[in-house]
Amino acid sequence: MRYSALSLAWNAATGHRFWKPAWRDAEPKPAYDVVIVGGGGHGLATAFYLAKNHGVRRIAVVEKGWIGNGSVGRNTTIIRSNYLHPANTRFYEFSMKLWEGLEQALNYNVMVSQRSILNVFHSDAQRDAYARRGNAMRIAGVDAELLDTDGVRKRYPFFDFDNARFPIRGGLLQPRGGTVRHDAVAWGYARAASDLGVDIIQNAEVVGIDIQGGRAVAVETTRGRITADRIGISVAGHTSHVAAMAGLVLPIESHVIQAFVTEAVKPLISGVVTFGAGHFYISQSDKGGLVFGGDIDGYGSYAGRGNLPVAEDVAEGGMALMPAIGRLRILRNWGGVVDMTPDGSPFIDLTPVQNLYLNGGWNYGGFKATPAAGWTFAHLLATGQSHELAAAYRLDRHATGRVIDENGQGAQPNLH
Ligand SMILES: Cc1cc2nc3c(=O)[nH]c(=O)nc-3n(C[C@H](O)[C@H](O)[C@H](O)COP(=O)(O)OP(=O)(O)OC[C@H]3O[C@@H](n4cnc5c(N)ncnc54)[C@H](O)[C@@H]3O)c2cc1C
User: Fold this and answer.
1) Is the pLDDT confidence value at 413 over 80?
2) Ligand 1 and 235: CB distance under 6 A
């Protein structure tokens, strides 16, 4: 059923009795052309673009839980394309353009809200670094504006501009950055993929990958064996675990990262803001809660919640930026598992096992990449060739020295 004003009116007039489920909860078939392991945003987007852009018809997405249970439904919903490295700028700007047309492409309201993102800076050296990043963005055709202190004050008069340690000297603004309703992205892609014939198989954990003569030929799941011509791994925080089923050891660590939401208040923060002297970022949800987060917990984990030292660190960042936040109560807090790489950039590539493909290593920021990751991973699965926009996200780049260290931080996952 196509969603439209007409269908809304008709369903309202008939007592909402005839809405159909948004997607088919499919039973596994014995064989497919492509099996995608992982029904997060990336796996579902990949399935959608495989069917839509490449005409592949026999596709299964195999998900161990339910659609939306992973990081796609746990993240803090920020989208942006304010990168410095050309490989990243091009990729994330492509993603931004896909976000801008996504609701029409999916016929689904994913609540894309381009409310802006502001990176606040606190010193002359930091201003220079942000000016450089802003210039790189503009050269690549991405929107960027450098604000001085007054420019920031106009938007956020309640920030602590004269903080003794971290005075606010200005900020780098990307007006087209913003937020998207995270779980709606999973639902929207699931619905659109299902409409194109993709089987979405929930509650089916992949527990083994069958390799014969160097080729991946099937996945063993808790709902039976499924053979496939091509298998794509897209399991985010569980990437190294699933890749190990094929004998692969990847430069990826799984860490927990937390999110926090306060009680609802009237509109206060119009865009997304990041603090520049620590890891703290914040926005306000449409329901009024302030949504914020910071660093990963810093130890390997698959837990759905984190620990107090990071909660304290995040709260300190919030207090330094806007002391008024101390008067609000945190209502909810949870964790999600992220797949951290040494240089902070992802992988979309072939693996040494034939017919086995990988999309992973998204660190802090894979949500904003969802449309572009799906688009380019689908291209790789359909053609066997890297899409030009993802060609730098090679699995062997740490061996060849072609790392994409966006922040120039070296091999320390939490700093990317
Ligand atoms: C608290 C938090 C805040 C974040 N904030 C942002 C943000 O503001 N902006 C941003 O860009 N990014 C953010 N991220 C990162 C972003 O959410 C992730 O990078 C992205 O969602 C990962 O891709 P995905 O949606 O496909 O992952 P997931 O939704 O985790 O999908 C992977 C799926 O694979 C499934 N799976 C795992 N193992 C198996 C198996 N063996 N068999 C079958 N299925 C399996 C899982 O159940 C899961 O559903 C945040 C993450 C967290 C946790």
Assistant:
1) no
2) yes
